[in-house]
Amino acid sequence: LIDSFEDTLAQADSAMYCAKQDGKNSYRLFDEHVRDAIYRRKQIAENIRVASENGQFSMVYMPIFRASDLYIHKVEVLLRCHSPALEGIGPDEFIPIAEEFGVIQNIDLLVIETTFRHMYRHQKVFNNPDLVVCINISAKELNNVKFASALKGLMKDYRINPKKIQLEITETSLVTI
Prior knowledge:
Elements: H1 5-22, H2 32-53, E1 57-65, E2 72-81, H3 91-100, H4 104-121, H5 123-126, E3 132-137, H6 147-157, E4 165-169, H7 171-176
Parallel strand pairs: 2-3, 3-4
Antiparallel strand pairs: 1-2
């Protein structure tokens, strides 16, 4: 039962979003499956926000070896979540949802600051002159007027050489920008 024009528009928007996820040349009618999918995404977004506030994210570092000599020349920062509410939901699913619901900027800055803190504290590991740290950020940051100054401030606070950092745009957000 639809109460208003705004409800009809919201339902049409939800169905359109689900159709876009299905691929090109598709359509969806708003039904209980669409409603349940949207509700699930909203719940995940809320759990991401809570996990961020409760410090339930951590970073791990994946070495990237040069094939010619197996020398570690880069490390990629990987985000992990330890929230019981997000158990079984990996970054491949929760990152696009964080982008959709506008909580990705907090996660991006959390990842950057935590990485910079680790680099500062563990200089013996990260101080290799050839080592570059690769950090994924959302393409949404390209439109965030505060991002560059926040990044610059964090680099200054943790004394990070900009040549040591490589920012990479997440593929999921780049598709829709």
